[in-house]
Amino acid sequence: MPANRSTLARRGIAALAALPLLTLAACGYGSESKDDDTAKVASGAKKTDGLDTVKIGYFPNLTHGTALVGMQKGFFQKELGATEVKPATFNAGPSEIEALNSGSIDIGWIGPSPAINGYTKSNGKSLKIIGGSASGGVKLVVDPKKIKSLKDVKGKRIATPQLGNTQDVAFLNWAAEQGWKVDAQSGKGDVTVVRTDNKITPDAYKSGSIDGAWVPEPTASKLVSEGAKVLLDESALWPDKKFVITNIIVRQAFLKEHPKAVEAVLRAAVETNKWINANPDEAKAAANKQLEADSGKALPADVLDPAWKSIQFTDDPLASTLNAEADHAVKAGLLDKPNLVGIYDLTTLNKVLKAEGASPVDAAGLGTS
User: Fold this and answer.
1) What gap in Å lies between CA 112 and CA 123, rounded to an integer?
2) Separation CA 2–CA 344 (nearest Å)
3) pTM of the full structure
4) How far apart are the C-alpha atoms of 51 and 80, rounded to whole Å?
5) 133 Cβ contact list (under 8 Å, min separation 6)
6) Closest to 93 measured CA to CA, from 125, 65, 64, 66
7) CA gyration radius, the chain
8) pLDDT tens readout for residues 212-246
9) How do residues 296-323 score in pLDDT, each as one tens digit?
């Protein structure tokens, strides 16, 4: 493994080791971790790698749409044959990483921050990112009566989901690029950052305690349904308008011991993304149906439609943007410079893509040597 591994060493950042330090990932609309026995095994199918089950974790969020649709349409079960899919849903990255480390799940859909934290905290021994899933789905939405232009954000109260999470870091980085000074820890400065759980951000907006929010979907579209307007789509700040919001990770021991099962899940993910992009309306409905099964509540059309439209589903992990997100956290003073070389192992994904006649994806120098 590479030398000079980074640690979250700054005072007050120890607690962030348990938080999604860079992302995504858009938590707060899911249920507690739970199993789902609705997956059906095809008659006469054979087990993959001799396994009875493969345990897959994800958030019941639209940015985890590959997992939602793959579960709902049976793509994962089809590829795994008689090896039963055992899904579990999570509300936050740290709990999913804990489940991965304990063996409660084998493979997971997760944002870049918890993946980075899980990798660096374990000295590169916990997980590997083995594929991409989604890009985009993050917006700055504001009260149009109080904020009419980007410069009007100065002096206002803007919510982000959590200290040090992906959207928090992105907003701090954007504010710094405007020339504004903000203390990352307290959130005080030329603009006030209000760390607010996604579940209560719409109520905070309605009460007037925040003037806007830099948040993932579907929170952004929930706010718009309450009268907010989109002032900035984060994708506009990135090259080619793409940045990682969700990746696929695997427990390293599972990858080593059960490569055929990992390949089957990646085949299913690639097949799912292909189906999503070819059938956007059907995919949106399937994701919402699975979301209702997982969280107990489907999204209304005025939230679902714009939220789904802003997310791009891709097999590419967009590795260069993960590295950039880490750099933004370092600049904000929330993270010591990490050594992420080795966090990706895209060998199996590229094997699957080659079989599909698709182009390989790149680890941006952060792959397994």
Assistant:
1) 17
2) 13
3) 0.83
4) 9
5) 64, 65, 66, 67, 109, 246, 247, 248, 269, 273, 313, 314, 315
6) 64
7) 20
8) 999 999 999 999 999 999 999 999 999 999 999 99
9) 899 999 999 999 999 999 999 999 999 9
